[in-house]
Amino acid sequence: MSSSRTTEDTYEAQNDQRLDELHSKIRTLRGVTTDIYDDAERQHLTLDDTGNSFSSLSSSLSQSSRRAAQAFGLSGAGGVRQMRIILYVVGSFLAFWLVWKTKEIWWVSESP
To answer: Which of 107, 106, 88 shows the shortest CA–CA distance to 96?
Structure first.
C-alpha cells in the first residue's frame, strides 16, 4: 500500500507542478493580452488625434483658399477677372520670351 501511496504522491506532485506551469503561462498570456489592449488603445487615441489634426488643417486650408480667391477676385462673378489674370500671365511670359530672343539676336550679331 505504501508503494501505491508513493505513486499517488508522485502523480499529485507532477499534477501540481504542471498546474503551476499552466497558471504561469495563463498569467503570461493575460499580461500579453493586456499589453496588446493597451497598445491598441494608445494607437486608437493617436489616430483620433491625427484625424482631428487633419480635419483642422483641411478647414484652415479651405479658409485660406477662399480668402486667396477673394483677394485675387476669383470668387463669385470673377470669371472676367480670372481670364484677365490668365491673359496677363501668358502675355508677360510671351513678352519675356520675345525680349530674350531679341537679346540673343543682338548679342550674337555684335560679336565678330
So the answer is: 88
User: Hey, CA dihedral for 25, 29, 34, 38, is it positive or negative?
Assistant: positive
Number of CB atoms found within 10 A of residue 5's CB = 9
69 in Cβ contact with 75 (< 8 Å): yes
For residue 3, what pLDDT is reported? 74
Which tens digit of pLDDT belongs to each residue from 69-108? 777 666 665 556 777 888 899 999 999 999 988 887 777 6
Query: Residue 74 in contact with residue 82, Cβ under 8 Å?
Result: yes
Alpha-carbon distance of 106 to 56, in angstroms, equals: 56
